[in-house]
Design the sequence.
């Protein structure tokens, strides 16, 4: 296509850049600024960031082990048989319960100082819903010990009681008080306090574990309630390297340079009139844009010459002619030979000629559109 062809991409680009120059310059500057900010943010960010990380851990745990030795031989058990970690023991042949509290600590800790206190508790309580009434309580310290154990080792504290004797003693205390409606309970409380150093920081643990012993006629049940495993983490600020995105920084810099150059080029083109198009080319580009906009209302064909009884009306723009077609529910016909646009409506021919310059003076289209009289006689004017 020729350089001044209104249908060419280059001509249309020059037209739209000239028409919206400062908008194009502003867009280029905005894109350049955003790209420059991305590049700056990428290159200026630090190589590392500080975050809290776990540098050491300390884990503590506790449990109970228990057993009862058969004191007399029976058909089922021989004397001396050791019954271990059962939920139920037989009071008649193994009334004495031996238990051991085991405390462990592991992790990145220094040797720990472990203080253990074992208390035997007998009491009478009545529980109704969420409320508990304690009628009496007798506590007796059985063991107290302090020792130092290394990480991975265990502190073991052994204790024992005769279940039958303690049961009778609890019944005797209750009778001394005239009898209470509460339930008599028998259990061990083991309180453990620990102190150690982890990564130079002093840490402590305090827990209370309970071993319940519940006599039931010829048996007694044993159940444990422990604090369970607990882990303490020591954190410290640590510098972590950051992965930089060099591609994003390079791309941002490149786009900033390109769009700054584009903005400067547009301003230079405007100052040197490089974007200026001839008036006829501008008119043609605008017509082509309007033609594309209203393409659905326009058909291409051959328009016959006007007749003597037709009324001719000149329209100054294609857009106005399309309005006429819409109002009259007609089609716009583009004549492929003359490039005129015509709308026919009830004996009136509405015509838009792209090459005609609009004038404030009425235009006599009759002599322009009607062919000359073959006999040399001037034809009649258009009907009014």
Sequence:
């Amino acid at each position: 296509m020729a350089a001044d062809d209104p249908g060419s991409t280059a001509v249309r680009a020059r037209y739209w850049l000239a028409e919206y120059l400062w908008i194009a310059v502003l867009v280029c500057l905005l894109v350049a600024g955003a790209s420059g900010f991305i590049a700056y943010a990428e290159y200026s960010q630090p190589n590392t960031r500080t975050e809290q990380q776990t540098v050491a851990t300390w884990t503590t745990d506790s449990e109970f082990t228990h057993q009862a030795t058969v004191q007399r031989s029976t058909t089922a058990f021989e004397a001396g048989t050791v019954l271990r970690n059962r939920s139920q023991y037989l009071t008649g042949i193994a009334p004495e319960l031996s238990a051991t509290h085991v405390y462990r600590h592991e992790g990145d800790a220094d040797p720990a100082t472990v203080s253990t206190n074992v208390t035997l508790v007998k009491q009478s309580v009545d529980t109704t819903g969420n409320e508990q009434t304690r009628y009496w309580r007798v506590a007796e310290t059985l063991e107290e010990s302090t020792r130092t154990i290394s990480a991975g080792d265990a502190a073991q504290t052994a204790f024992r009681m005769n279940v039958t004797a303690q049961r009778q003693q609890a019944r005797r205390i209750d009778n001394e008080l005239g009898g209470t409606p509460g339930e008599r309970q028998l259990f061990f409380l083991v309180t453990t306090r620990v102190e150690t150093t982890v990564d130079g920081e002093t840490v402590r643990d305090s827990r209370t574990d309970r071993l319940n012993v519940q006599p039931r006629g010829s048996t007694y049940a044993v159940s444990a309630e422990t604090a369970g495993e607990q882990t303490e983490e020591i954190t410290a600020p640590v510098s972590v390297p950051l992965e930089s995105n060099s591609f994003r920084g390079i791309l941002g810099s490149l786009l900033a340079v390109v769009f700054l150059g584009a903005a400067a080029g547009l301003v230079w083109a405007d100052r040197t009139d490089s974007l200026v198009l001839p008036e006829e080319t501008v008119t043609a580009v605008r017509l082509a844009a309007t033609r594309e906009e209203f393409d659905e209302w326009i058909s291409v064909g051959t328009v016959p010459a006007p007749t003597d009884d037709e009324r001719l009306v000149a329209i100054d723009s294609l857009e106005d002619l399309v309005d006429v077609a819409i109002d009259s529910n007609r089609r716009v016909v583009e004549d492929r030979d003359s490039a005129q646009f015509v709308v026919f409506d009830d004996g009136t021919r509405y015509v838009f000629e792209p090459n005609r310059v609009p004038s404030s003076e009425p235009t006599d289209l009759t002599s322009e559109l009607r062919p000359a009289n073959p006999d040399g006689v001037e034809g009649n004017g258009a009907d009014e």
Q: What stands out?
A: Confidence is low (pLDDT under 50) at residues 360-384. Residues 55-239 form one domain. The chain has seven helices and 16 strands.
